[in-house]
Fold:
Amino acid sequence: AVDYMTRFGFDASKLPRNLSLVLGTASVTPLQMASAFSIFANGGYRIQPYIVKQILDDKGNVLAEAQPVTAGDENLRVIDPRNAYLMDSMMHDVVRRGTATRALQLKRGDLAGKTGTTNDFVDAWFCGYQPTLVGVAWIGFDQPKKLGNGETGGSAALPIWIGYMGKALKNVPESIMPTPEGLVTV
Structure:
């Protein structure tokens, strides 16, 4: 599992080497999670996420601009497109019928993601995406302590994500990942 997780950009030396790893006990950053979730969003390619797309001066001149690599280069493929599609399908169900149904208020059929809550409500997060944009909302304290009873990813972090994605996807057309060869829908 640790070796496989390195495909998603996680540092193997920082991952726990025990069975609790499958429950999400590794400490990772929101940016690392965005990078990992982008692989599901784009069909299996690992790309480097960026936070700031462009910096302009007061006259509108571009001072700096991200130069992102576009998914599609087979050298960047880290998982089979069928696996990416199946994970994408499962995370669409999290939005359609699971812990992230509040995201349906955005009235989009192309949203997918996963909520998360750590033991004793210490952290709450939502990692979600649309095929062209990944966003992660995390809530917690610098020095870990309980957020409060019931402060889950779906109740605390998801509304932040919805607020951001509602604006970021305002004029972005919906897109759905096509079914890759080798899979059938039944």
